[in-house]
Amino acid sequence: MNQVKKADPNNRTVAENRKARFSYEVLDTIETGLVLTGTEVKSLRQGQANIQESYASAEGGEIWLINSYLPEYLQANRFNHEPRRRRKLLVSKREMAKLAQSVEREGMTLVPLKIYFNDRGRAKLLLAIARGKKLHDKRETEKQRDWSREKGRLLKERG
């Protein structure tokens, strides 16, 4: 008998930076943890976070997520968090050294791709080491995307 697996409610994407793959050439990705307060976790579970304009920075031997938006949790009253505060990312020392080296020496950027809850219910951030695309690269990406969309339409029409 085939048993259908139900989607785990804990393992779901909360916020995604879809424009990052268009604006940046993603070279490597790393899963990092987030240091959050209780109201931030509850706010994330409501699914209204935004990481469109955020980035990560290596400062003082630590990596920080800057300019991410987690709205205030309405039921928290005076114990609420600041929506745009800097949040510390949890990575191993070896990964931290690798990230800091790629940013300083090679001119890469640390771009958050998505925030999600893993199987254990922990909030995780998928962080990309990326290089900014030039305008002609963005145009090429757009052409390829349009062509693949058109090709799909043609194949669907002709059977």
UniProtKB/TrEMBL annotation:
Cellular localization per UniProt: Cytoplasm
Q: Cross-referenced PROSITE patterns, in alphabetical order?
A: SSRP
Spell out the residue ranges making up region: Disordered.
138-159
This chain belongs to the protein called SsrA-binding protein
| Keyword terms, alphabetized | Cytoplasm, RNA-binding
Entries under InterPro entries matching the protein: SmpB, SsrA-bd_prot, SsrA-bd_prot_CS
Biological classification of the source? Bacteria, Pseudomonadati, Pseudomonadota, Alphaproteobacteria, Hyphomicrobiales
**Which species is listed as the source?**
Mesorhizobium captivum
Q: What main location does UniProt list?
A: cytoplasm
Q: According to the lineage, what is the superkingdom?
A: Bacteria
What is the recorded function of this protein according to its Swiss-Prot or TrEMBL entry?
Answer: Required for rescue of stalled ribosomes mediated by trans-translation. Binds to transfer-messenger RNA (tmRNA), required for stable association of tmRNA with ribosomes. tmRNA and SmpB together mimic tRNA shape, replacing the anticodon stem-loop with SmpB. tmRNA is encoded by the ssrA gene; the 2 termini fold to resemble tRNA(Ala) and it encodes a 'tag peptide', a short internal open reading frame. During trans-translation Ala-aminoacylated tmRNA acts like a tRNA, entering the A-site of stalled ribosomes, displacing the stalled mRNA.
> One Pfam family this chain carries?
SmpB
Gene3D superfamilies for this protein: 2.40.280.10
Q: Which gene encodes it?
A: smpB
The similarity comment for this entry is:
Belongs to the SmpB family.
Q: Which SUPFAM superfamilies match?
A: Small protein B (SmpB)
